[in-house]
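Teaching soon. Invent one.


***
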Amino acid sequence: MRVAIAGAGAVGRSIAGELLENGHEVLLIDKAPTAISVERVPQAEWLLADACEITSLDEAALQRCNVVIAATGDDKVNLVVSLLAKTEYGVPRVVARVNNPKNEWLFNEAWGVDVAVSTPRLMSALVEEAVSVGDLVRLLRFSHGDANLVELTLPEESALAGTQVGDVEWPEDTSLVTIIRGTRVLTPSREDSLEAGDELLFVAAQAREEQLEDLLSVRRDSAAS
């Protein structure tokens, strides 16, 4: 997979290193000569250019990229890169870094963003995820389709504990994608049973989140009555 990363700072270089280790082809783009540190990520391609300029993106052959990551420290730049990548080059997947949480509402499909990553929101979500049982935690927002990656740790008293996945009437527009049980990561099948303490990861429409939380958190005594 070919990935272009706009922004060769610490964040961009870190992402590039991870992708290269996983066997992907990576191009780092930055307009600041001081950011071009080829020796730090020698396996990557490097381009000294302004990622907001069409001529630069032509040189980068953005149309050959499977993914574009707008990872600069400037939200305005990240939005422009995302919009150009999607509308001018038809890049299938555009991921954008949100630096200022106040700007998060802009990072949506209208600006070409498929996935918006807000570091402050993600950090707070991970804190909530670590301490919350029975509460739905939003980990990541997918702009396309208005869906989110959400997590809930199944409480001891949940009426669904011991129930097979296939027997649960899940809300519409939700999909259980992973069960984390201790050190195991399970791809759920209809025959798998839910256990108290399971971390359940869903892709769910935002409008269904409250319904999903109510379903998972309902107490056994409430369900029986």
